[in-house]
Amino acid sequence: MRRNDGARAAFEAVYSESADPWASASHHYRYQSLKYDRMIALLPRRRFDNALDLGCGLGLLSQKLAKRAEHVLGLDIATAAIDRARRSSAAFPNLEFERGDILNLPPTLNGKFDLVVVADVLYYLSPLDEQVLKSVVRRIADLLSPGGICLLANHFFFSADPDSKVSRNIHRSFSDCPRFEVMSEHRRAFFLATLLSEQPQLVSA
Ligand SMILES: C[S@@+](CC[C@H](N)C(=O)[O-])C[C@H]1O[C@@H](n2cnc3c(N)ncnc32)[C@H](O)[C@@H]1O
Fold first, then answer.
1. pLDDT at site 3
2. Residue 190: cis peptide before it, omega within 30 degrees of 0
3. pLDDT tens digits for 164-194?
4. Residue 107: predicted pLDDT
5. Sheet harboring 190-198: ordered strands across?
6. Which numbered atom of ligand 1 lies nearest the CA of 117?
7. What pLDDT shows up at residue 1?
8. Residue 75 C-alpha to ligand 1 middle, in angstroms?
9. Is 119 in the pocket of ligand 1 (CB under 6 A)?
10. Of ligand 1's atoms, which has the minimum distance to the CA of residue 32?
11. Quick one: DSSP state of residue 123?
12. Segments in the chain below pLDDT 50
């Protein structure tokens, strides 16, 4: 993978300019909290052992995951986001946050999670060409334990909207990857969600 210092600096700046850049905690603009609830509702009803929230931002979705999993790790490229997520999640003993870059995740995380959630993060990767996307999709598959689940969500307004096309392309990269089987696909206001299951790879003799 590659160094991503520019992206890190850009997101640190975003978090230094605003306490809540995506209105995740806003009581007036409830889109994000509704998105989190709708995402959680898409998960199978069972409890999870180890969940990962990749690009967790302020950790509000991580907090909801903490009610469904024994342990949750939130990772974000921005230290400022992680610091705030830690402060607001002190009441969740099974929730921890670390700084981490999706493009440079350590191999020690491989196979550790039975649930990985990636919400509104991947379209920020630049460049986001087919090669980068394929490699990120495989990297996320590597993080899952056999049969583990990935919940992917990205904003979606309407088919001809350029940003929505990017989201559609991201979801297609996951559904086309032989490491994943699509469990279900959903269109909600205003995001796409895909639930995928990791396919254990056959090792040839
Ligand atoms: C729009 S916010 C979404 C936050 C959260 N997932 C949610 O749905 O509320 C995008 C987040 O992705 C993080 N991010 C962007 N690029 C990243 C990368 N390469 N690795 C990890 N996090 C990244 C940003 O710092 C930011 O917190």
1. 65
2. yes
3. 999 999 999 999 999 999 999 999 999 999 9
4. 98
5. 95-99, 69-76, 48-54, 113-119, 144-156, 190-198, 180-188
6. 6
7. 46
8. 9
9. yes
10. 9
11. G
12. 1
Q: How far is the CA of 204 from the centre of ligand 1 (A)?
A: 37
Tell me, using a 6 A CB cutoff, whether residue 25 lines ligand 1: no
The structural domains of the chain, ordered by start, are: 5-15+29-198 (3.40.50.150)
State in Å: Cα 3 to ligand 1 middle: 16
* Token pair in block for residue 204: 């040839």
Taking CA atoms only, the protein residue closest to ligand 1 atom 13 is 55
Determine contact, residues 163/149, Cβ cutoff 8 Å: no
Instruction: Check pocket membership of 11 for ligand 1, CB cut-off 6 A.
Output: yes
Would you say the C-alpha torsion 159, 164, 166, 169 has a positive or negative sign? negative
DSSP 21-80: TT-SS-SS--HHHHHHHHHHHHS-SS-EEEEEEET-TTSHHHHHHTTTEEEEEEEES-HH
